[in-house]
Structure prediction request, 628 residues.
Amino acid sequence: MNKKKMLGIPYYFWAAMFIVIPLGMVFYYGLTDKTGAFTLENITAIASPEHSKALFLALLLSFIATIICLLLAYPLAMILCGMNVNQHSFIVLLFILPMWMNFLLRTLAWQTLLEKTGVINSVLTFLKLPTLNIINTPYAIILGMVYNFLPFMVLPIYNSLSKIDGNVINAAKDLGANNVQVFTKITLPLTVPGIISGITMVFIPALTTFVISKLLGGSKVLLIGNVVEEEFTQASNWHLGSGLSIVLMIFIIINMVLSAIFDKDGEGSVL
Amino acid sequence: MSKKLIDLRNISKSYNGQLVLDDLNLYIRENEFLTLLGPSGCGKTTTLRILGGFETPDSGNVIFDGQDITKLPPNKRQLNTVFQKYALFTHMTIAENIAFGLKIKNKSKSYIDDKIKYALKLVNLDGFENRMPDSLSGGQQQRIAIARAIVNEPKVLLLDEPLGALDLKLRQDMQYELIRLKNELGITFIYVTHDQEEALTMSDTIVVMNQGYIQQIGTPETIYNEPENAFVADFIGESNIISSTMIEDRLVEILGTKFPCVDTGFGNNTPVDVVIRPEDVVLTRPENGVIKGVVTHLIFKGVHYEMEVTANGYEWLVHSTGMYPVGTEVGINVDPFNIQIMNKPASEDEEAAKIDE
Prediction:
């Protein structure tokens, strides 16, 4: 082993301890029952109405949140690209700034804002306007997802937009394309890697979240993340929790494979 | 002479308060190969971008075929651009790249297919239809960029330093390709470069620019043999530029020695700049020369030797196929026809040219 490879040892150790072994344990628990015998029951448990409903809802809400993020992020990334360096670093800072704050804290803040007697409703009542009752509904969860994950959509799209040579756009205009044609035929296809990367980075954490749904959905809206969490913390059924995690992992892997196909050069990745 | 196709009238442009073009006037004829030549920052690319519609001048007008197109966006102009570094669409095949402009114009599929075939043949890349731009060499990508532009049958092709990224041998081959293309297509080429050799090889007309001003317009021969000022002389090839005095018509005093020359009309005892090309300095035995000097440097350059000869307190740059070792005493002669007399910089723009050296 040469010296450069030796530098990797701490990381290999880290990866083995906290990635490979835990993953192995998830698979062990997921594929065994309480007696330790092999079973697929924990996996097939997803078919039960209660579990499949939570999975379907999680897929639906994270899908909607991803679409909203995409629709908000793309124009924003385009605006950022068109700015000069001074303005743009300020706007980028505005975007990154909330990311430096704790994720839990930000979600708790939304809880306080959205509560029936929270800040937003107090203002609305004061203005004699109808109050907003979205706390403990799927809408609040989508709001929380969009708020927390939007920067992960903006950055990869911004990245691939800023890589487009201005002369490529000029060349398209030069060949007769109007602004709409430039966008649909040049800009959009060239930013597909960034879009895919952004979708992955929003969809996966949204799909697996249990904090956002817990804080903003109360106990009324259960996502698959909450079910898994409850199996581990309350029901102490690690086997079922692991089995459902494996099912969730399948969806994540599908998403990752799709993004690897579309983003061959790793162009859209920011992290 | 063919008729004027493009007329640039009183064009001025500045970026962040810095003047890039100052009251530029220039016309371009039909079927002309015109080169905008100058150092970086001279305004040549800005002029091209104004022609292409990517910049709007602060003042002045662009007249194309009798119509004012100053404010017309690029997609409405009857000219096409070949960009520096090609600017191909990397997500499309070569055929899709070439078809781009035609598809936007809703041409029929058979027309487009014919055009793609024709264009690829013209740039000697038959059979490349389904390749991706990334799989092509720099020279091939450049030719695709040209093919993509010419299928639209523009009246004018704008070329922004298209050979800048290619190596020397390829660049020379492409120069001949471009001349051939221009003759086959019979359209106007407007070419931007900082490479004087490229300009001399290909152009019908060269426009030498510096600091936003046109320094000289002329044929390659005129620009090389009769530069109008020290900037042009210095930028186009190597030269000896010597501050001298015009004694009278056909007689100039260079470094204290009188030389016969062919220029007239500069007046008597007028301070002038004299340009003598290194290949026009003739070395001979000391007793046969008009002035005597000593060889101080000698470098073999392949086609010729490059020497420096100190004579009358000036370092003469000499190109010669004959070799004189360092330390040799030589005589210097210059054919009267090869002494080019220029006025000293008087106007502000010529002064600017001086500072830039």
Summary: DSSP finds nine helices and 20 strands in chain B. Confidence is low (pLDDT under 50) at residues 352-357 of chain B. The two ends of chain B are 36 Å apart (CA to CA).
